[in-house]
Design goal:
heterodimer, A: 117 residues, seven-stranded mixed sheet, four-stranded antiparallel sheet, 0% helix, 50% strand, B: 114 residues, mainly beta, six-stranded mixed sheet
């Protein structure tokens, strides 16, 4: 069973360009979470999605950032008009449905390292 | 609000000696606590978790952690370090109102000397 997959692993963008980060959850997982890790810091929650639904985006910057998890295909984290401060590692995690439990163990991908020049 | 503080940004031990990675949490309720490990260029892996059952939690690869409410601590230990333990370790608490939201400490980098 393949783990959580993220691509690209490294992404370089110039200021003003768009960055699209993709995440394929583990097979059978329908919950996806995105986290951002700034240099020398821990991960910070950004958004929680289920198929075709954004459940909690309280950690997302209000502008330029958006996320989706379509019925088919990977989850996408999109950053428009990137700035130097967006340089970070972006991690995706997924978890399965287990009855009515709200929390399940989150399985993390290897991350995408975004560098904005 | 919940938070975790990892007291050491770097810890260096010799192979075969004990490991202690310190973590203190701040929470107004009985929290769920976790330790994750991150190897270079890899995703994070769950080492162990505390969810209000036994206060001494055993995890993978010989690691364990003890929940001490009186000290608000959840330190990670291992009796004997192995070279493969060299990695970044994160202490994590789940948000009280949204338990899927994990709150990470700043991490401790463990170096293991031959």
């Amino acid at each position: 069973n393949a783990g959580v997959m993220q691509n690209p692993r490294h992404l370089v963008r110039r200021r003003g360009q768009e960055a699209r980060l993709r995440c394929s959850p583990m097979k059978g997982h329908s919950h996806v979470y995105w986290y951002r890790q700034l240099p020398e810091e821990g991960l910070k929650f950004m958004v929680y999605l289920q198929k075709e639904n954004i459940i909690d985006e309280s950690g997302m910057p209000k502008e330029r950032f958006s996320a989706e998890f379509p019925k088919e295909g990977p989850s996408i984290l999109r950053i428009q008009q990137v700035v130097r401060g967006d340089s970070a590692a972006y991690f995706c995690a997924s978890s399965p449905i287990q009855g009515q439990r709200l929390y399940n163990e989150q399985f993390f991908g290897p991350g995408t390292r975004l560098t904005v020049l | 609000a919940q938070s975790v503080t990892q007291l050491d940004s770097h810890v260096s031990v010799s192979e075969g000696t004990p490991v202690l990675l310190r973590c203190n949490y701040s929470s107004s309720y009985s929290p769920s606590l976790f330790w994750y490990v991150q190897h270079p260029n890899k995703g994070l892996q769950l080492l162990l978790k505390y969810t209000s059952a036994a206060t001494l939690v055993k995890g993978i690869n010989g690691f364990e952690a003890e929940f001490k409410k009186s000290e608000t601590s959840f330190h990670l230990t291992k009796p004997s370090a192995h070279m493969s333990d060299a990695a970044e370790y994160f202490c994590v608490v789940s948000d009280r109102d949204s338990s899927y939201k994990l709150i990470f400490g700043s991490g401790t980098r463990l170096l293991v000397r031959p």
